[in-house]
Design brief:
630 residues, alpha+beta, D-Amino Acid Oxidase, Chain A, domain 2, ten-stranded mixed sheet, 19 helices, globular, binds flavin-adenine dinucleotide
């Protein structure tokens, strides 16, 4: 297995490899979209021995997959919607992630459900919890989470003094994860198994087989080998010697292969798709990628991508906005590792422990603006505060809010014209767009693995037999160490002056990959120092984000690797200068490029925060656009 290291040179090599694919030497599967779904598809396909590529228009997880509630859960709410299959599947995935696939990243968390009435509510919620526990039973395996338990008013007050309660509650266990970290760890694991991955490389058009000549056309992918061994990382196979593919500056469509036609304007008619046209955002070079099958895992962007393919077939996807706020941990008194779940008028509200903060959300409102920039409004924040204050003994104020973020749920739209996203199931759907291309949409972060398996099975459906999914037994990178004890822990504490909390936090972010950060610190001991402006992180984490985790911009590091988007009151503006100085050499930034990055990052944060002072989505979008132009 390879290291899965995503540094700038690896990204550049990946783009070269993708650009060298041709009609004669296509990838087996190309994944468009590097959220958790696409990352899962890339890993599933790579571990089946397929030759796989994945690209994202922005950073890994820059869409919805960094803006969720970060719960790995069955979803009690779906029990109420009688969606038993979804709950059972999600609980199974939760336990698999907790015990086998990503025990370093996915951690247990407990919740209390405060009751509205002493008898009826206790019986109703209690029976739901019993079902939830029962659905998590796996014959022959130990329970990953403890059974639920009933708490009387006094018991609940002692576990969660910050909660207003008359009737007690019920406590149960679930799990949580840094969603962006899960996603880029999936990408790294896919690369370690042979996938070729490039972020900041949007797909701008689709390649169609010319009806008469292209033998590569067709709707099913063929594995490069079928023995279950990992496929190529692209360094040694499938390079075209002729001039039918390659990278070119600008949008010169003549760089495309002779046997294909491009259809960037979407005028086609569902003809077979044999690849895509993409752009390297760092160099502005255009290139083509050939693949036997292209999987769109583009979440709320799916309809736009389907249009670009020129096919009239496809999925309809509803975007529903959900926001979260963070507040300091000491604003709500509770035992460590314990959160709250409570019902709201349209959704459920979680108050989730998140390090030194509480993560509180969410909302569920239709989003009718551009899907590229979901924004939080003042009204959203008030709604979350009101819902939280309905159960808290000491009300939270607007001034308690550290940060806020908005995400868009990609919900497969029902056939009716309904715009009411709360009635749409979170289950996923896979659909053929045209021969050689399909889309997978919906589901949840928790169920990314089963979605991925379905998507790859769908891509391979015309080929029987085809290699089966193996991801149930493929741990993610770093999963082999979740704890450091004894003399090793003492040595690390003594060598770097880290306390147990710091060490545990590092372990839960990196697992056994922590060794790679320690190697960097050995070379440059000053990297063991906390980052100014984001002191819960070490300088080495910013450097590692660029050298191994695929970050190429300040926001990639500060928002999706260090999570200053939700944990820093200034969203990382103060830390940006120090981070820029640390990563500039690896990214080849001179003084001018560094200043431009800093300016762009600061302006983006300012525009988002200005939008948070408006009342409606439309006003927020207008304010954001005006600030972005400044
Ligand atoms: C508020 C909220 C809370 C949630 N909470 C939970 C939770 O607690 N637990 C849970 O299990 N699930 C949760 N979910 C659901 C979960 O977050 C989503 O189902 C999941 O993140 C969707 O992932 P995705 O990969 O399908 O989409 P995305 O993460 O949006 O990925 C799509 C990707 O496609 C890329 N893309 C778009 N166009 C192009 C192009 N032209 N070329 C290349 N790439 C392109 C985008 O850049 C993006 O990265 C929540 C969702 C929301 C909104």
């Amino acid at each position: 297995m390879r290291t899965g290291r995503l540094d700038p040179a690896a990204r550049s090599r990946a783009i070269d490899t993708l650009a060298r694919t041709s009609a004669a030497t296509p990838l087996d599967i190309l994944v468009v979209g590097g959220g958790v779904t696409g990352a899962g598809v890339a890993l599933d396909a790579a571990t089946r021995g397929l030759r796989v590529g994945i690209v994202d228009a922005g950073d890994w997880a820059s869409g919805t997959s960094s803006k969720s509630s970060k719960l790995v859960h069955g979803g009690l709410r779906y029990l109420e919607m009688l969606d038993f299959a979804l709950v059972a599947e999600a609980l199974r995935e939760r336990d698999l992630l907790l015990t086998t696939l990503a025990p370093h990243l996915v951690r247990p968390v407990s919740f209390v459900f405060p009751l509205d009435s002493p008898v009826a509510d206790r019986a109703y919620i209690g029976s739901g919890m019993t079902l939830y526990d029962a659905m998590a039973i796996r014959p022959g395996t130990r329970r990953a989470m403890p059974l639920h338990r009933h708490l009387g008013p006094r018991g609940l007050r002692s576990r969660f003094p910050g909660l207003r309660t008359e009737h007690g509650g019920i406590e149960y266990g679930d799990a949580q994860v840094d969603d962006a970290r899960l996603t880029h760890t999936l990408i790294r694991t896919a690369v370690a198994h042979g996938a070729v991955a490039a972020n900041h490389a949007p797909v701008t058009g689709y390649l169609h087989a010319s009806e008469s000549t292209d033998g590569a056309a067709g709707g099913s992918a063929t594995p490069s080998n079928s023995d279950g061994e990992s496929g190529s990382d692209g360094s040694g196979t499938g390079r075209a010697s002729g001039g039918d593919t390659g990278r070119a500056s600008g949008a010169d469509s003549s760089a495309g292969p002779a046997s294909c036609t491009e259809d960037p304007a979407g005028r086609g008619t569902g003809r077979p798709i044999v690849g895509v046209r993409a752009r390297d955002e760092l160099t502005a070079e255009e290139f083509t990628i050939h693949a036997r099958h292209t999987v769109l895992a583009t979440g709320v962007w799916t309809e736009r991508q389907q249009q670009l393919t020129g096919s009239s077939a496809g999925l309809r996807v509803l975007a529903s906005k959900g926001i979260h706020i963070t507040v300091p941990r000491d604003r709500i008194a509770a035992d460590p590792g314990l959160g709250v779940i409570t019902r709201t008028e349209t959704s459920v509200l979680f108050i989730i422990p998140w390090g030194e903060l509480w993560l509180i959300g969410t909302t569920d409102t239709p989003w009718r603006e551009s899907v590229s920039h979901p924004l939080v409004t003042a009204e959203d924040i008030e709604r979350v505060l009101t819902n939280a204050n309905a159960v808290l003994s000491e009300p939270l104020e607007r001034t308690d809010v550290v940060a806020a973020y908005a995400g868009l749920r990609p919900l497969v739209q029902p056939p009716a014209d309904s715009d009411d996203s709360t009635r749409v199931s979170r289950e996923h759907a896979t659909k053929e767009i045209a021969p050689g291309a399909s889309a997978i949409v919906g589901g949840k972060l928790t169920t990314y693995r089963v979605m991925a398996e379905d998507a790859v099975d769908f891509a391979l459906r015309a080929r029987r037999p085809h290699p089966r999914s193996r991801t149930e037994s493929v741990p993610l990178l770093g999963a082999d160490i979740t704890e450091i004890t004894g003399p090793r822990r003492e040595r690390l504490r003594a060598a770097h002056g880290w306390d147990d909390a710091r060490l545990d936090r590092l372990l839960h972010r990196y697992g056994s990959l922590l060794g790679e950060l320690l190697d960097l610190i050995d070379e440059r001991p000053e990297l063991a120092e906390p980052l100014p402006g984001a002191r819960e992180h070490l300088a080495v984490e910013a450097v590692y984000a660029v050298r191994a985790e695929g970050a190429v911009h300040l926001a990639d590091v500060l928002h999706r690797r260090l999570r200053c988007d939700l944990a820093c009151a200034d969203r990382g503006v103060e830390a940006a200068r120090a981070v820029a100085a640390l990563i500039a050499p690896d990214l080849g930034w001179d003084a001018e490029a560094t200043a431009a990055e800093l300016q762009g990052f600061t302006a983006e944060v300012a525009a988002q925060r200005a939008a948070e002072r408006t009342r409606t989505d439309a006003e927020a979008v207008a304010e954001y656009a005006a600030r972005s132009r400044e």
